Amino acid sequence: MQEVTIQGARGTIPACGDEFKRYGGNTTCYSLRTDKGIIIFDAGTGISHVKREIAHLGKTLPITLFFTHFHMDHVIGFPCFDPLYDKNARINIMADPRRRDNWKSTLKTFMGKPYWPVGLGETDIKMTLKDIPVSRDAMDVYGARVSWLSVPHPQQCLAYRIEAAGKTTIIATDIEYDLETIQTSFINFCRGADFLIFDAQYTPEEYEFHKGWGHSTWQVGARVAACAGIGRLILTHHAPARTDNELNRIIKNARNEFASTDIAMENMVLRK
Ligand SMILES: [Zn+2]
Ligand SMILES: [Zn+2]
């Protein structure tokens, strides 16, 4: 399945309850499988869906896990990712070497005592932690072309562009622009993509009280999608208390500005 699948679209902290059933309460995770391997973006609690997929595959494929950044909602599912304990697994973990923290140390601190009983690297598996080759524009991963861009967000964050099987998807979870600050470099990065997954944690009204918190609105997503010639806009990083009914109202507003808009939903496969 060479389509990007949304495995978790909630921001900040998982949500559970009937009012979150439609769009799901797991935090950020996206994945893509080619015949050569599995590519994962972020390890929020949505990565639980990926581990179930892997368990049912019937064969062992290599895994590359890219991190956008290391805020808790993007790493919280990582220590529970079963392949980390499977001696047949081959896992390559990648992140931005230009981060001001040392991301490899950050991840080792997070997955280690006293936060977790088994430390990263203590299990008997083939695992590498590699810097993204930022001196280049893009890299080939199991036949998919993956490129990256630094985007505005506290403690730094990357957006990713994935080109595979004739489709292009942008993952821009955790990014802050208002209508005046959208950067041309980001528009160019997104240009012509079939799918733009974009951080719309806040409504425009809420954003007025959350400037500098690192997240955007559906209005900004619609503007980017129109400027960059996007096929379909997918709003993501739902606020933890945002109910299904509220998201249904948001989508109506967003479609008035960019008709081809959807709300990110767990298990949604991005097909043209
Ligand atoms: Zn987040
Ligand atoms: Zn974040």
Tags for this model:
single chain, 272 residues, alpha/beta, Metallo-beta-lactamase, Chain A, seven-stranded mixed sheet, six-stranded mixed sheet, 7 helices, binds zinc ion
Question: How are the SSEs ordered, and which strands pair?
Answer:
Layout: E1 5-8, E2 29-33, E3 38-41, H1 47-55, E4 63-66, H2 72-75, E5 90-95, H3 103-110, E6 126-131, E7 138-141, E8 144-151, E9 157-164, E10 167-172, H4 184-190, E11 195-199, H5 204-207, H6 218-228, E12 232-236, H7 244-257, E13 261-263
Parallel strand pairs: 3-4, 4-5, 5-6, 10-11, 11-12, 12-13
Antiparallel strand pairs: 1-2, 2-3, 7-8, 8-9, 9-10
Low-confidence parts, pLDDT < 50 over ≥5 residues? Answer: none
* The number of domains: 1
The CATH topology corresponds to Metallo-beta-lactamase, Chain A
Structural class: alpha/beta
- The percent range for strand residues is 25-35%
Q: End-to-end distance, in Å?
A: 13 Å
Report the order of strands and helices.
EEEHEHEHEEEEEHEHHEHE
Find the count of extended strands (DSSP E, 2+ residues).
Answer: 13
Q: Are any ligands bound, and if so which? A: zinc ion
**What is the rounded Rg?**
18 Å
CATH class: Alpha Beta
Mean pLDDT: 96
Q: Specify the overall morphology.
A: globular
Q: What's the CATH architecture name?
A: 4-Layer Sandwich
CATH superfamily: Ribonuclease Z/Hydroxyacylglutathione hydrolase-like
User: Can you count the helices?
Assistant: 7
Work out the helicity level: 10-25%
